[in-house]
DNA sequence: TACTAAAGTTTGATTACTCAAACTCATGGT
DNA sequence: ACCATGAGTTTGAGTAATCAAACTTTAGTA
C-alpha cells in the first residue's frame, strides 16, 4: 500500500470515469462527482497524483492516468471485485449490498490476504455483477456483450453483466429474476414510453426503462422465438 | 463506525493495557507505547476520548474507559478476533501473520459483514491464539488458565492460549508443535538458567525461557507421569 | 465577434492526527 | 525536607484531506 486510502479511491474513480469518457480523459467534474467531493478538492488531489507520476493533467484539461496509475487502479479494482465475490459466494450477502462494503474493505486487503482469497474462491474471472476481475498481473478482459436496450422485440439473450451498482437497481433486478447468467426474452418495446417489457426464463414479465436496460449487458441467444 | 479508525485503535489499546495494569488504570506511557506514538500525542487523543465520554482521566493520572468506551473496545476486539479466526480457518493463513492483517481489517467490517462472518465460522468462542471472542452483546468470558511457567517438572498440561502476538514467537511455537489444544509435559526446569524444557505430545523436547513460557497459558492435566 | 454560462482553479480556513521540544508534576531516595 | 528523575502535559508546527467562495478559463450562443 504505497498510496493512502484516499489516493486509492481517486485512482479507481479516475480509471472508471476515464473508461466511460469518449476522449479517454476524465473530466475533473466527473471525478469530483464520483468521489462526492467538490471540484476544488478534486483539483488539488489530482495535483498530488501528478506529482506522484500517477496521472497527467494540464490546467483546464482532462485527467489521464499514467501506466503506473493505471496499474495501481487495476490492483484496487481487483481487490474490490474479489472482495465482492467473497461477500456473495462465501458469506452469502446480497449482491445489492456488497459494493459499499467492498468500498471500505478494498483498502485493508494485503497482497497475501488477496491471494489467499483468490485461491479460496477458485480464481474467479468475474464478480457477482459480471464485472471482470483484473488478474494479479493487471490483465483485464472485458466480456463481449451489448446493452439490453439494443435488443429487438422477441429477441432472447443471456444476462452477463450489470453496470449499475445502485442498491435499489440491483434489488429490483434480483426480485425480477434478472441475475447474471439468467436467460430472458424481450416481450415488447414501447419506444414512445421509453419502456421495454422483459420476461426472464421461468419468471413473469417486468417493465424497465430503456435507460435502466442500457445498463444491463446481455449476450444474444441464437435461438429465435 | 461512529469513531474514526484512530479512535478505535486507542480504545482497543487502552482496554488491553487496562486489563494488564494492576490498578485497572492505563498509564499514558503504556498507551503511547502500544500505539507507537509519542506521549504527547496520546495525551491529546485521550482528551478527545474524554470529551466523547469514552474515557475518564485526570491530569497526571491514569486512563480508564467508561462503560461506553469499554463497550466500544469490546466491539472492536470482537471484530479483530473474528477476522483472525477467518483468516486462519477459512483462508488458511498462519497464526503468526493474522494479527497484523486483522489490525487493519477490523476497521472496515460492518455489523452486517461481521454477523455473516460469525455465522460462516460457526460462532466461534475463541480465536486462533485462544483469545476469547467477545459476544455481540459485549459478553466476554476469559478461559480458566495459568501461565506455563508455573508448572512443575513432570506436570502435564493442555495449551489453551498464547498471549504473545509477535510473529517470531508464534512461528517458534508452531514449529515446536505447541499449538492451541496441544498437550505437553514439562521435562525439566532450570531455575538458574531461567529455562524450562517442554515436550509436546508427539514432538521433541524444546527449551523456552520462563519469560516466554509465562505468556503461554495452559490448563494442567490431572494425569501424572 | 462579444458575452455568458459552465467548468475548472485558487485561496483561505477547518478538522484530524502527529511530532519535537519545552515545560510541569509526582515521588522516592538520601 | 530536598530535589533529581521519570512520567505526563503543553505548545507550536506540519501533513493530509476537505469545503466555501472568489476567481479564471473555455466554449458555446447570440
Ligand atoms: Mn474505496
Ligand atoms: Mn462489482
Ligand atoms: Mn487497528
Ligand atoms: Mn488473537
Oligomerization state of this entry?
Answer: homodimer
Count of individual beta strands of chain A: 8
The largest β sheet of chain A comes out as:
6 strands, antiparallel
Overall pLDDT score of chain A: 94
CATH topology of the domain at 146-221 in chain A: SH3 type barrels
CATH homologous group name of the domain at 146-221 in chain A: Ferrous iron transport protein A (FeoA)
> Largest interface, per-chain counts?
A-B, 18 and 18 residues
Radius of gyration of chain A: 19 Å
Instruction: Note the total helix count of chain A.
Output: 8
- The residue ranges of chain A in which pLDDT falls below 50 over 5 or more consecutive positions are none
Alpha-beta classification of chain A: alpha+beta
Strand order across the largest sheet of chain A:
3-8-4-5-6-7
Amino acid at each position: 500500500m504505497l498510496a493512502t486510502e484516499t489516493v486509492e479511491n481517486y485512482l479507481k474513480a479516475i480509471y472508471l470515469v476515464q473508461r466511460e469518457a469518449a476522449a479517454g480523459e476524465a473530466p475533473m467534474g466527473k471525478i469530483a462527482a464520483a468521489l462526492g467531493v467538490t471540484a476544488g478538492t478534486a483539483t488539488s488531489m489530482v495535483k498530488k497524483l501528478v506529482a506522484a507520476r500517477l496521472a497527467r493533467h494540464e490546467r483546464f484539461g482532462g485527467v489521464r492516468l499514467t501506466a503506473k496509475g493505471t496499474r495501481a487502479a487495476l490492483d484496487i479494482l481487483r481487490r474490490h471485485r474479489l472482495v465482492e465475490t467473497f461477500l456473495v459466494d462465501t458469506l452469502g450477502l446480497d449482491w445489492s449490498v456488497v459494493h459499499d462494503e467492498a468500498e471500505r474493505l478494498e483498502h485493508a486487503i494485503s497482497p497475501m490476504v488477496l491471494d489467499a482469497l483468490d485461491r479460496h474462491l477458485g480464481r474467479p474471472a468475474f464478480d457477482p455483477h459480471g464485472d471482470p476481475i483484473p488478474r494479479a498481473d493487471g490483465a483485464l478482459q472485458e466480456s463481449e456483450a451489448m446493452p439490453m436496450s439494443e435488443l429487438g422485440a422477441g429477441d432472447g439473450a443471456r444476462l452477463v453483466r450489470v453496470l449499475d451498482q445502485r442498491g435499489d437497481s440491483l434489488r429490483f433486478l434480483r426480485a425480477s429474476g434478472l441475475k447474471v447468467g439468467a436467460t430472458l426474452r424481450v416481450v415488447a418495446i414501447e419506444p414512445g414510453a421509453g419502456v421495454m417489457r422483459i420476461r426472464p426464463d421461468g419468471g413473469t414479465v417486468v417493465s424497465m426503462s430503456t435507460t435502466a436496460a442500457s445498463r444491463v449487458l446481455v449476450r444474444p441467444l441464437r435461438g429465435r422465438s
